[in-house]
Amino acid sequence: MVRGRISRLSVRDVRFPTSLGGHGSDAMHTDPDYSAAYVVIETDAEDGIKGCGITFTLGKGTEVVVCAVNALAHHVLNKDLKDIVGDFRGFYRQLTSDGQLRWIGPEKGVVHLATAAVLNAVWDLWAKQEGKPVWKLLVDMDPRTLVSCIDFRYITDVLTEEDALEILQKGQVGKKEREKQMLAQGYPAYTTSCAWLGYSDDTLKQLCAQALKDGWTRFKVKVGADLQDDMRRCQIIRDMIGPEKTLSLFLQMMDANQRWDVPEAVEWMSKLAKFKPLWIEEPTSPDDILGHATISKALVPLGIGIATGEQCHNRVIFKQLLQAKALQFLQIDSCRLGSVNENLSVLLMAKKFEIPVCPHAGGVGLCELVQHLIIFDYISVSASLENRVCEYVDHLHEHFKYPVMIQRASYMPPKDPGYSTEMKEESVKKHQYPDGEVWKKLLPAQEN
Questions:
Q1: Is 339 left (phi over 0), alpha (psi -120 to 50) or beta?
Q2: How far apart are CA 260 and CA 274, in angstroms?
Q3: pLDDT tops 80 at residue 59
Q4: Is the CB of residue 233 less than 8 Å from the CB of residue 204?
Q5: Confidence band for 195, pLDDT divided at 50, 70 and 90
Q6: Residue 418 pairs with which residues in a beta bridge?
Q7: Residues with Cβ < 8 Å from 245, sequence gap 6 or more?
Q8: What Rg do the C-alpha atoms of the chain give, in angstroms?
Q9: Is 87 exposed, middle or buried (0-12, 13-18, 19+ CB in 10 A)?
Q10: What angle do CA 164, 170, 175 make, to 5 degrees?
């Protein structure tokens, strides 16, 4: 039962000093401090349930997202939750179409990250009030209600409301069986935790050996800064996996994090093709749709797919990537797009084009959020696990009240109500920037 008027919205700048250990480092982001703008919304309902939402950042700039959240707050405060979810498309459009704020977007950049944080909190609140995890809330939702959550503006040349409804209605067939399968087996995952670019060879070997011992068979390697370094590191992982005859049992992905120009990407990957990667991720600028298409066409004969999406601004960019046949693996992000609402539209477009969705995760809470989306996708939209896998990074889960559960290298569907976004208050206070205990110690040392 949806209830309550939103009476308060707070947002805090939470940062973890991950750069100290090289965690999260890649060819373009060499010193990330995994961070989040953490939003909490409260209502006047007697149950005291709060909605928690995040958007992911890398340290500097989180304060800018916090400002954007505060600028959006007036669209949320004093609204009845029932009215919001009863016209979710209208509320989404209200947030993304503010006549002044959209000038610093529209639907991209800082203002869209802030929109995601606010909407993620709304979805968390709604699911908690319904007593369901978000994936289950979506799975149990009538197809017409799901469609009513989506803003189809700018994508009707590819996906209409009628198209979306037809896909969701077809997804009703076999849905109960697929839900049972997810609850029993989970959703297949791959790990990025072993091969950050800032890790030494010894650390890479140690983490890879432990991952193999833990049952991981799918690994992603960061590449793009130095070709010889990439060759050496990829060879280390290949040697640890085993001889070539066993490679078919394992998957290896590569991620350049937007490092290359288009010709450079083709040349570089031609050299790395011998390691037989399933895909190269973000080979060039995330905005270069035609560049991705060119790289895709060149690498298909080498058996290498293109994966991208973690820094795609919105559903329009995804639409064009699909139209241009610029990717073979689509990577949604739970905090860069406009929360569940916009991700629903991308999942449906991917289904229409029959492109597998392999979400981006990691960071602060991205694994916690995106598991809901990809489990829903399998149960209600794609109905397939072929060429599908979800990223997992083993960092910072201990700071969440309902952390992800991985078994047999698979995401097990969360059972607690909500969007798994609620952080432990102790962790938030300790890592709040710049006044938390962690930063009070670190900042003076960094200044010296």
A1: left
A2: 19
A3: yes
A4: yes
A5: confident
A6: 133
A7: none
A8: 21
A9: middle
A10: 115
Residue of 128, 132, 136, 222 marked active site:
222
Q: Which residues pair with 217 in a beta bridge?
A: none
Using the Cα atoms of residue 348, residue 354, residue 360 and residue 365 in order, give the sign of their dihedral.
positive
Place of tokens 């289950």: 136
pLDDT tens by residue, 119-141: 999 999 999 999 999 999 999 99
Tell me: pLDDT of 324 over 90.
yes
333 within 8 A of 359, measured Cβ to Cβ: yes
Tokens at residue 56, please?
């992911």
Cα 202 to Cα 285: distance, rounded to the nearest angstrom: 31
**Rounded CA separation 199/22 (Å):** 6
Give the three-class secondary structure for 348: helix
CB 345 within 8 A of CB 155: yes
**Which residues have C-beta within 8 Å of that of residue 118, sequence separation ≥ 6?**
9, 39, 41, 53, 69, 72, 73, 76, 95
Q: Name the residue with tokens 């990330």.
A: 32
pLDDT cut 70: percent of the chain above it: 98
User: Tokens 């280390």 belong to which residue?
Assistant: 236
Place of tokens 């700048």: 13
- What pTM does this model have? 0.96
According to the model, what pLDDT value does residue 244 have?
Answer: 56
Q: What are phi and psi of 73, to 5 degrees?
A: -55, -35
**375: Cβ–Cβ under 8 A, 6 or more apart, which residues?**
135, 182, 187, 411, 413
The number of residues in the chain equals: 448
- How far apart are the C-alpha atoms of 107 and 155, rounded to whole Å? 14
Known catalytic residue at 360:
yes
User: Model confidence over 381-428: pLDDT tens digits?
Assistant: 999 999 999 999 999 999 999 999 999 999 999 999 999 999 999 999
Which position among 319, 360, 397, 431 bears the catalytic label?
360
Where are the extended beta strands (E) located within 260-321?
A: 279-281, 305-308
